[in-house]
Amino acid sequence: MYGEPTNPIPFVVASYALGAIGIFGYALWVYFHRKKLTEYLSVLKSNRR
Q1: pTM surpassing 0.85?
Q2: Which segments of 1-49 does DSSP mark as H helices, in order?
Q3: Is the pLDDT reported for residue 49 higher than 90?
Q4: CA dist., res. 8 & res. 3, Å (int)
Q5: In terms of pLDDT, which residue wins out, 45 or 48?
Q6: Which of 18, 19, 42 lies closest to 34 in space, CA to CA?
Q7: Where are the domains of the chain?
Q8: Dihedral angle sign, alpha carbons of residues 24, 27, 28, 29
Q9: 21 FRET partner, CA 20 to 30 A, in 1, 12, 39, 46?
Q10: Residue 30 to residues 11, 15, 17, 18, 24: CA-CA distances in angstroms?
Q11: For the segment 8-45, what is each residue's pLDDT rounded down to a tens digit?
Q12: pLDDT of res. 47
């Protein structure tokens, strides 16, 4: 009616892929920062008198 219809599937797949990449990236960021914080905590516990 108003021109050639656009297939929405690639846009939906791309939005889910971007969301998954964002969640995975945030999970990696949290994992590495948690690892660093546990190292700091172990240093603090070992320096206690």
Answers
A1: no
A2: 9-46
A3: no
A4: 15
A5: 45
A6: 42
A7: 1-49
A8: positive
A9: 39
A10: 28, 23, 20, 18, 10
A11: 999 999 999 999 999 999 999 999 999 999 999 999 88
A12: 77
Q: Which structure tokens are listed for 23?
A: 């969640």
Torsion of the alpha carbons at 21, 22, 24 and 26, rounded to the nearest 10: 160
Q: How many residues does the chain have?
A: 49
How many C-beta atoms surround the C-beta of residue 47 within 10 A? 7
Ramachandran assignment for 24, one of left (phi > 0), alpha (psi -120 to 50 degrees), beta (any other): alpha
What confidence category does residue 1 fall into, taking pLDDT thresholds of 50, 70 and 90?
Answer: low
As to burial, measured by CB atoms within 10 angstroms (0-12 exposed, 13-18 middle, 19+ buried), residue 27 is exposed
